[in-house]
Amino acid sequence: MEFEALNSADLTAYLGGVPAVRALLGNTDELDVVEVGDGNLNFVYFVSNARAPEKSVVVKQAPPFLRLVGTSWPLTRQRMEHEVAALRRFGALCPQHVPEVYHADSELFLMVMQRLSSHKILRQGLMEGIVYPKLGDHLSTYLAHTLFFCSDLFLAPHVKKEAVSAAVNSELCKITEDLVFTYPFEDHPSNSYSPALPRFAVERLRTSAALRIAVAEMKWAFMNHAESLLHGDLHTGSIMVNEDETFVIDPEFAFYGPMGFDVGAILANLWLAYFSRDWHGRAGGENPGHYQQWLLEQAAQIWNGFAEKFLNLWRDHESRSKQHFIGEDPDAACSEAFRTHFVRRLFADTLGFAGCKMIRRIVGMAKVAEITSIPDEAARAEIEVRCLRFAEALLVQRQRFDGIDEVLALARTVGAQSEDCV
Ligand code: SR1
Ligand code: MG
């Protein structure tokens, strides 16, 4: 049967029949239903009690196709089950940063979840130049907790292996393998280029052997390194914020993959915001430098905070369980050496994935508003070239950076380059 998106009457009748949701909405006779899905995959509705609008939930349904493209790109609807399972898992580990799932229906591929009515999508907030004082602290906590507690550093080996197998998400991983790691580096019909983007910038993505090797290594890691349960699509459109709170939404791409993929996704999107701020700041009549500085500080706080919190969780766990991951190690000196090595490798992975994520948003199919909303074609292309140049350096030099400050210094240098340099 052909899929039909739910209308207001269908949803009202359906939600009235779910006791847990009826209790949250109060009277379900009169509901206001607004479709707000601006995402690429699903239908999303805000549903509120018409007489008490503060009683409100979000309903999300997966159609059997990719919404961005339509029925010509079929997708199985089981992605909703991955999303529900991941929200529940992450919610158990980090309840303060994950919305609550109130109800899930595996026949309609639909879920009802907490409405975050005083929060804004982070990408939008960053485009408006809003400062979120707790962002770096919250996101580093979210990353450290989800990535540590779903890994072999914490879980018993058989539990981890069962979890890996239950979270296999081949269809959505294939989208990432194609759209993030493959098509942007080919002459692929799904790519699109801004009109003023210089030819050399595109050619480079296809012909630089050092870059292609680096991207291939990241693709290999993405496909083979089942380190922890990832969100899998942790860009700034998957984060909702206000001054006090930060929530991570939309983990339908969740699977067991390399930890650096999630960390790199957040950093990549902060760097896209950083480079594009040059235009948005000036357009708003401000000196873009102040907000750019704040964006770089968030990147530093997220990486440094994540590394510190992750290592502390690891140390606490080993000291409580009186067992080291590496085996007997009476004074823990070798364990500490391994931890240092582990974080160094994770940092290099993070930078490599961030590079891929930035490139795909410039030349690939699904772009980001902070770049596409720049109406001045020459200015947009200049910013895009800076993003590509920075991303390439992240990928190719990822093992050579000695800490996040060096990376941020590079961002400042690339961000200050004039058109003739880029
Ligand atoms: C074809 S779907 C395009 C993108 O939207 C999602 O948010 C993922 O990033 C995916 O690659
Ligand atoms: Mg999404």
Strand elements, count: 12
Report the portion of residues in β strands.
5-15%
Small-molecule binders: 5-S-methyl-5-thio-alpha-D-ribofuranose, magnesium ion
Tally of alpha and pi helices: 15
Strand order of the largest sheet: 1-2-3-7-6
Model description:
- There is one protein chain.
- 53% of the residues lie in helices and 12% in strands.
- The chain contains 15 helices and twelve strands.
- The protein has helices spanning 8-16, 19-25, 79-93, 122-127, 135-149, 157-166, 170-179, 199-207, 209-224, 259-283, 289-321, 333-363, 369-372, 377-396, 404-416; strands at 31-35, 43-49, 56-61, 65-66, 70-74, 101-105, 110-114, 120-121, 228-230, 239-241, 246-248, 255-257.
- The strands form four sheets. The chain has a five-stranded antiparallel β-sheet, sandwiched between helices. Strands 8-10-11 form a three-stranded antiparallel β-sheet. A two-stranded antiparallel ribbon has the order 4-5.
- Strand 1 and strand 2 (43-49) form a beta hairpin.
- Helix 14 (377-396) runs antiparallel to helix 15 (404-416).
- It is globular and about 60 Å long.
- It starts with 7 loop residues before the first helix and ends in a 6-residue tail after the last helix.
- The model has no long low-confidence stretch (mean pLDDT 96).
- The structure holds 5-S-methyl-5-thio-alpha-D-ribofuranose (SR1) and magnesium ion.
